[in-house]
Amino acid sequence: MKQYLTMTKYSISKDMVGSTEAQICFLTDRVIQLSYHLKTHTKDYSSQRGLRKILGRRKRLLNYLNRIDTIRYNQLLNKLGIRGIRKNS
């Protein structure tokens, strides 16, 4: 239920809970939860691996959104308070 509420909050419309923004928001919530968990359980290597996988998926979605619509990308970064993707120069 919490996942659905999170996705509807950041989706473009109420019917588009699978939008890129909603997926990135859901993954950001998972990152926050796992980071909190890993502060107390520092040797939980399975959770560390899961966190790295989630971060990679979120990074790919952010890359996609940046390529498709830069305005929506910047708005989402401001809403979530996360850093953008690094550009290799």
Automatic annotation (TrEMBL):
Record localization: Plastid, Chloroplast
Domain of life, source organism: Eukaryota
A GO molecular-function descriptor: structural constituent of ribosome
A GO CC term assigned to this protein in UniProt: chloroplast
Major subcellular site: plastid
Record Pfam families: Ribosomal_S15
Keywords per UniProt: Chloroplast, Plastid, Ribonucleoprotein, Ribosomal protein
InterPro entries, per the entry: Ribosomal_uS15, Ribosomal_uS15_bac-type, uS15_NS1_RNA-bd_sf
UniProt record, GO biological process: translation
Family from the record: Belongs to the universal ribosomal protein uS15 family.
PANTHER family per the UniProt record, alphabetical: RIBOSOMAL PROTEIN S15, BACTERIAL AND ORGANELLAR (PTHR23321), SMALL RIBOSOMAL SUBUNIT PROTEIN US15M (PTHR23321:SF26)
Subunit structure comment from the entry: Part of the 30S ribosomal subunit.
Name of this protein: Small ribosomal subunit protein uS15c
